[in-house]
């Protein structure tokens, strides 16, 4: 029997992505405090670097750190962003007449708070672009740049009631080893090693109305940062579109040619475009099988053998080998550490 409220199969992110955040937190939180945060969400600092991190764990860690430190940007900037700042930002932006006006309020708000960077809104005929312009010589905080640009996109999506596609997202830092995690967050081509970090919306979106009431804002804030970090995936980049096709197909034998036809591409073009995103059809398929396994091991009592069969493995032994390759741990050990009864 299918649950009335099935647990979604969300893309996980790599431990390396989390480590980028933890590197900043180690400079901000005393070691015992940070160790306590990680222990509460099941992410001990000794976890293997190939482990996967779920959306729930990212959300819970943000909530713990923001509340306990009193800084809603968790030490990512030189000035503390005190508790309540996000609420005031949302209240200001939801009073705007359009998306372009809301983005202007976003830039104005952060320019009152940040000493490190100016947030500049460039308005052109066919583009709305938010840029982070350094105030003097600044060390680049990769996670801080990502989080601030994602906040702009996430609140814009919430205000307009839809996930907004992006023209592009640029980062001033060089491409990290975990760059494959960024398309999970941003529905756009992502470029690294650019002159400035920026996020660009299509200009036609600027006239979209914003319409959110006080009750909706309170719900959004209670769930924060879930709704602004992890927006829906329907407008996301090609790898997540392929993933969605695999999810909807419900067929273990779904092949590259099937996905190419659904996307109106030739198989050769699909392979080439996925290669640009540093992935492949088989890699996406394996990632989906991995995330289904992680979900089912964390929730419910389905046997390991049943999970292995559900995701297309001929035997539990084959599943064990694949799972250990994905996470550097066994299915049983993962279940003991992460089970949520």
From TrEMBL:
Taxonomically, which superkingdom?
Answer: Bacteria
**What are the residue boundaries of the HTH araC/xylS-type domain, all occurrences included?**
240-337
A GO CC annotation recorded here is:
cytosol
Keyword Transcription part of the UniProt annotation = yes
Q: What is this protein called?
A: AraC family transcriptional regulator ligand-binding domain-containing protein
Q: Which UniProt keywords apply?
A: DNA-binding, Transcription, Transcription regulation
Do you know which Pfam families this protein is assigned to?
Arabinose_bd (PF12625), HTH_18 (PF12833)
Q: Which SMART domains match?
A: HTH_ARAC
* Organism this protein belongs to: Parasedimentitalea psychrophila
Q: Which InterPro entries match?
A: AraC-type_N, Homeodomain-like_sf, HTH_AraC
Q: Name one GO molecular function term.
A: DNA-binding transcription factor activity
């Amino acid at each position: 029997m299918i649950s009335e409220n099935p647990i979604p199969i969300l893309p996980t992110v790599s431990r390396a992505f989390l480590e980028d955040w933890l590197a900043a937190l180690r400079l901000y939180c005393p070691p015992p405090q940070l160790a306590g945060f990680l222990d509460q969400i099941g992410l001990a600092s000794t976890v293997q670097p190939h482990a996967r991190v779920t959306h729930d764990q990212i959300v819970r860690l943000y909530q713990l750190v923001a509340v306990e430190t009193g800084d809603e940007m968790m030490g990512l900037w030189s000035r503390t962003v005190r508790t309540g700042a996000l609420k005031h930002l949302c209240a200001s932006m939801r009073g705007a007449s359009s998306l372009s006006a809301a983005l202007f309020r976003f830039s104005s708000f952060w320019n009152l708070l940040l000493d490190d960077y100016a947030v500049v809104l460039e308005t052109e005929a066919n583009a709305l672009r938010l840029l982070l312009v350094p105030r003097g010589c600044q060390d680049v905080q990769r996670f801080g740049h990502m989080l601030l640009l994602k906040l702009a996109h996430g609140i814009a999506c919430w205000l307009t009631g839809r996930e907004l596609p992006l023209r592009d997202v640029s980062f001033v830092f060089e491409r990290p080893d975990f760059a494959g995690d960024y398309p999970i967050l941003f529905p756009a081509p992502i470029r690294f090693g650019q002159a400035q970090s920026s996020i660009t919306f299509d200009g036609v979106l600027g006239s979209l109305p914003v319409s959110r009431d006080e009750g909706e804002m309170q719900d959004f804030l209670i769930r924060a940062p879930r709704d602004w970090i992890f927006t829906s995936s329907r407008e996301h980049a090609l790898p997540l579109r392929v993933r969605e096709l695999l999810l909807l197909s419900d067929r273990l034998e779904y092949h590259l040619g099937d996905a190419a036809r659904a996307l109106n591409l030739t198989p050769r073009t699909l392979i080439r475009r996925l290669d640009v995103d540093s992935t492949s059809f088989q890699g996406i398929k394996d990632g989906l099988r991995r995330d289904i396994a992680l979900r089912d091991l964390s929730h419910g009592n389905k046997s390991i053998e049943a999970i292995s069969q559900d995701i297309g493995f001929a035997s539990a032994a084959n599943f064990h080998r694949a799972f250990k390759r994905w996470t550097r741990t066994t299915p049983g050990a993962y279940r003991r550490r992460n089970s949520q009864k």
